[in-house]
Write a structure and sequence with these properties.
The protein is an alpha/beta fold. It is built from twelve helices and 24 strands. The strands form six sheets. Strands 22-23-1-24 form a four-stranded mixed β-sheet. Strands 2-15-17-16 form a four-stranded mixed β-sheet. α1 runs parallel beside α3 and α1 packs parallel to α6. It is globular. The N and C termini lie close together (about 5 Å).
């Protein structure tokens, strides 16, 4: 699907959907308990494709997770005999990297399918850890991936510079192993707040992880259903609407938890540093247009916000440097390349660096055509940039938003965008 977008001004309130990061963890953990769990969510509509991938995989693995009236009802994985199963993680890196150690700790024999760029995203160093601790993965990580054996756990060490998702998967699996164990993160620990989300989720399901610096100690214990639980609002997706308010209007995003473990709540302080008008309320953020100034942004813990922040920087006075973002090259697209191309195609001025980009702000952008590269965050960023574009923005492959936010175009229409499918 390709769309043309024009926007004169953004105005209104967005009730944000539930956090994709939290839902992956809560739904997977709910399937590992002995009792039913009800997980409340903050939207009525289609769950994202990534969350659906996790649900489908857990259901094929023996659980029963169904959604009705904004509540996920989860019945745990049953104890029927093990048998070969085939699961598809679609394009969800979280699903894949959480599921591999968890299913292996359960001793399941299974085959994993993936789609899109996920097949080329790294499995190392998790691949080596699993194969060294009781698991056999076929074909050196080439898909379809056949997996069998039983993950034994123990005291593990892993490089934290590639993906925090590996660490999350190992932590969630360790209570299911014979003795539990620990995970020591070495190297440059990237995206640590996502691991904080995991530790918090595990606590809600009765597993206390002891954190000692970069070492996580996990007991052998049972996951215990909290009965009822609620997924918080999604700070990552909130960033697009908050940026929209800062560059062209007056936007309020509600349904946000100010005490969330999500690292992307840093958007509030970053917007203030850029000079945006920001008002923090009890469960919402209000942002209105103001004169913006360039800053330097360390993206080490907030890589998912870089596309939206690049749009913000494109109309901020001066040169914005975004750095420590090298892992963006192995996301749904090479996000350094695709973000820079997006800004330049819309009439802005951006250049790549080894670990990020430099963006020189302009008074406005001209508009133009942007490929989403099948990357949801590129599609959404280009769409909200339309408010500072003199001409139409055309997004090719706009359906990429379904990966995390199927209702996204309905939301920006309600705020003032004119969106036409072409």
């Amino acid at each position: 699907m390709n769309v043309n977008i024009t926007t004169e001004n953004y105005s209104g309130e967005v009730q944000i959907l539930s956090s994709k990061s939290e839902l992956h963890r809560l739904l997977m953990l709910s399937a590992l308990c002995a009792d039913k769990t009800e997980t409340s969510i903050a939207f009525v509509g289609k769950p994202s494709k990534d969350v659906l991938a996790t649900i489908d995989c857990m259901n094929i693995g023996g659980a029963s997770i169904v959604e009705n009236n904004s509540v996920f009802y989860s019945m745990p994985i049953n104890n029927r005999p093990l048998y070969p199963i085939t699961v598809s993680c679609n394009e969800s890196g979280s699903t894949l990297r959480f599921l591999l150690p968890v299913f292996s700790a359960l001793g399941k024999k299974y085959t994993v399918l993936v789609n899109g760029r996920l097949s080329s995203r790294p499995l190392s160093p998790m691949y080596e850890l699993l194969t060294q601790n009781g698991v056999t993965l076929s074909r050196n990580g080439v898909y379809p991936l056949s997996v069998y054996g039983k993950f034994t756990g123990g005291d593990l060490s892993i490089d934290g510079s590639v993906s925090s998702q590996f660490i999350t998967g190992l932590l969630m699996a360790l209570p299911l192993t014979e003795k539990g164990g620990s995970v020591t993160v070495t190297g440059d620990f990237q995206s640590r707040p996502y691991v904080d989300i995991t530790v918090d989720a595990m606590k809600k399901f009765g597993v206390e992880v002891v954190v000692d610096g970069n070492k996580y100690i996990v007991p052998k214990t049972d996951y215990v259903s909290p009965g009822d639980i609620k997924a918080g609002g999604d700070w990552s997706n909130s960033a697009f609407f908050l940026v929209a308010g800062a560059i062209g209007g007056n936007v309020t995003v509600s349904g946000l938890d100010m005490d969330s473990k999500q690292g992307d709540k840093a958007i509030v302080d970053i917007l203030k540093a850029f000079g945006a008008n920001v008002e923090v309320l009890s469960d919402s953020i209000k942002v209105s247009k103001s004169k913006l100034k360039a800053i330097d942004v360390d993206a080490k813990d907030i890589p998912d916000m870089v596309p939206a922040l690049a749009v913000l920087a494109s109309v901020a006075d001066g040169k914005t440097r975004i750095y420590n973002a090298q892992r963006l090259r192995i996301k749904e697209s090479d996000r350094i390349k695709s973000v820079v191309e997006m800004i330049n195609n819309l009439g802005g001025e951006a250049e790549e660096t080894d670990d990020g980009m430099i963006i020189t702000g302009k008074q406005f952008l001209t508009g133009g055509t942007v490929s989403s590269y099948n990357d949801h965050r590129i599609a959404m960023s280009a769409s909200v940039a339309s408010v500072v574009c003199k001409n139409t923005v055309t997004v090719l492959g706009a359906e990429a938003v379904n990966k995390s936010y199927p209702e996204f175009y309905e939301k920006i229409k309600a705020l003032g965008s004119n969106v036409k499918e072409i």
